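Reproducibility note. Readers wishing to regenerate the assembly model reported in the main text can use the exact inputs given here. Chain order matters: entities are listed in the order in which they were concatenated for prediction.
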Amino acid sequence: MNALVGFCKTETSLIIDTTMFNQWPDMENGDFSFLIGGEAGAGIARAGFLFAKACMRGGLHVFGTNDYQSLIRGGHNFYVARVSDREVFSQMDFVHLIIALNSETVVLHRNKLVPNGGVIYDKDDLSQTREEPNSSVKFYPVPMRRIVIEELKEPHNLIIMNSVALGAATAVTDYDLNLLAELLKETFKPEIAETNIKAARIGYNYIKEHFEANFEHKLRKMAQTKSPRIFLNGNEAVGLGALKAGCKLYVSYPMTPTTGLLHFMASNERDFNMVTIQPEGEIAAINMAIGAAYAGVRAMTATSGGGFCLMSEGLGMSGMTETPIVVMVGQRPGPSTGLPTYTAQGDLRFVIHASQGEFPRIVIAPGDFEECFYETVRAFNWAEKYQLPVILLTDKYVLESEVSAERFDMDKVTIERGLVIRDSYTESRVYGRYEVTETGASPRAIPSTAGAIVRANSDEHDEFGLVTEDPAVTTTMCEKRMRKLYYVKREIEERNIETTKFYGSEEAEATIISWGSTKGPIKEALRLLSAEGKNVNFLQILYLHPFPKAKVEEAMNKARKTAVVENNNTSQLSSLIRDHVLRKVDHKILKYDGRPFSPIMLAERIKEVL
Amino acid sequence: MVSLQDLNTSKKITWCPGCGNFGIIAAFKGALVELGLERERVVVVSGIGCHGKMADYVNVNSFHGIHGRVLPVATGIKLANSGLTVFGFSGDADCYDEGWDHFCHAIRRNVDITLIVHNNMVLGLTTGQTTATSQTGFRTKSTPFGAAVPPLNPIAHAIVSHGTFVARGFSGDPKHLQGLIVQAARHRGFGYIDVFQPCVTFNYLNTYEWFRQRIYKLEETGHDAGNRWKALEKSFEWGDRIPIGIFYKEERPTFNDNFPQLKDKTLEGMQIDKVNVDLILQSMS
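Running the prediction on these inputs yields the following structure tokens for the assembly.
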């Protein structure tokens, strides 16, 4: 108990109400968190992924997230996953089992361990840990290094220690070793897989032979749901959405946390008849995407805040030339280089306002993996129908965390391309790329359409795309472009598109308002609060621009009290609400240390404002 | 097939009388006719500067973009639809200052497009400042005491960056330039032509006369355009004699050739409403 108090003190200066911990409904009920830690290069993320996926294969629900530093070797990395018999939306504040591949893992995370928790560590690493005689914690020293060197005869491949440790963890939790072995087999080339499976088996048997089977927190397989679930991260969910949407050119310069999407698209380009390019930088990336989109192809780029700075002029050009592109921005803490491998929500105002002048854009902030998929498809539709840039605003937490999810429903997906003219243009009127229309979107001929000369222009231009400096034409064209947002809003209304989502009962002590990846921890915190008899509901704002003013206003009118939750320092959403709804929120719950909110910590801070 | 008349637009040309751009536009239109291209299958991409107005003055598809970004836009277009013949027009500031990184990378990718750089060694549209190719000592409003640093050598850079068609033309000789444009467009790969284009208003130094006194044609000297070292040597020739014509030429796979998924197909022509992602979903289960 004291351990928990200490842990939360260091992270939030908050003292956790330990009664809450005792009352946590799933405590005795199949909810289990493990943490695997070690140096960078020790295969921590891979090991965490494999154990988490093995849990999913056993019918359990999983949420995994990694914490790593901006370096290749050394330092401290860890992966923490929560496994449960019900759907889980975030990691938990504490863990039941620590799998330590170095001494730091125990030192840094010992205080997150629940009573009766366990620690697997290297028996021969004397610096690593001291057993605690009067503690309820179970220690499982396993000679991991010695096993790799002496039994497996792989002294130059110490990374295999992670498989020994996974085998040991499987035994401690009394889980099914075959599930892990299968995954190792699917992951590695045959000979490497064989060594790792052998390593896991040795680790497994070592526990079974040397320790009593008295670990309290066992993993029990559950019957699978109708169709097998998938285990994926946010980058992959966005990537699946882009492929499904028919994205044919993906151009991106590597930048955490979006690099995973570049890898995903590159590995799939041949199977999906699309092209992935890593160009000389973000400026080239967005301009290549725009060129391809002008030529009629669905194109996308992604970056983080720093790269998006470089893309700003291109973003404006997309708006001015009315060329549809999708840009994913994966936020991380700034300013400047900031904390390159951690999470934040500091770029909301930036993406809404980036680039000079005024032009229409849409900003969507997916809060979870499903939204990453469906909103990516939708982003392409918006972009093409209204011929403007669409920004998917994500962050490290949602992009690089992994979750077991139901398969996406492909019947819910439609492809809407808007006014596209291909092959030939037969109207008697000379084709004008920027014909002034009611909605602001003009019939978009694709270059090579017979009978149509297609002129895109970043200068102010007339209907035919020719440069103009005429004040009347300038006014008309500005209004033509800006009108699109009005029609976007109208379409949202007519088709009843969810631009906000509401969770919980209408009657509540308070309403949480938030956006993006805070969604998961908020849903978990609300569950905890509800178990304590505290009724709090949650308004998630999915579309930040154009702002869903009416829906936010309605929720605020019904709320007894409002609190905005954000991973930033200035509460950018609060200021946005003030801009549009002309009201202040009552409370702001902010966190800007690069780490996501976790449920208990957040529940405590919500309680403070009730 | 296009005729010269079809290539005119309604826009009034606003270049200064005697501007080197007139020679380039004449050569380009002549080249389009000579190449026998359809207007709808040609795309002009231009940047910012006096050259950028090419997009307004030639009646073909065009993308008039922002400063320095001609090549990434042109690359995106060519990747999307290899059936289009893409001509990039850029200036010395647009290409060799603001867009220098794209220049080197587009060349080494060997994107199958043509790049024509209007090189007048001065910023014209902003009323006269130095650029990357201004001569050392060149006095402008931004360098009243003379440009201190030596100019870039774009021809040498293009050869070193694995260029496959590296040429220089002179807008005072549009007929010769037209020949270069036709060859560059027919070249399978990145056709690059740096064009001496006198700025009659802001470049007091590099005038028509200055160029005429110095330039000579490589093809008239028996230059071997297949020899990279000879080409590089020629690219450094500057002073009393300055070569124009084709410095270097070779065949090598184009950027699009790297993608087997583009063989006999274009991205633009792909069907997108029935993409099946089941295989990936299976691998994630």
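We highlight two features of this model. Chain B has a mean pLDDT of 97. The beta strands of chain B are 42-46, 61-64, 85-91, 114-119, 165-170, 191-196, 215-217, 242-249.
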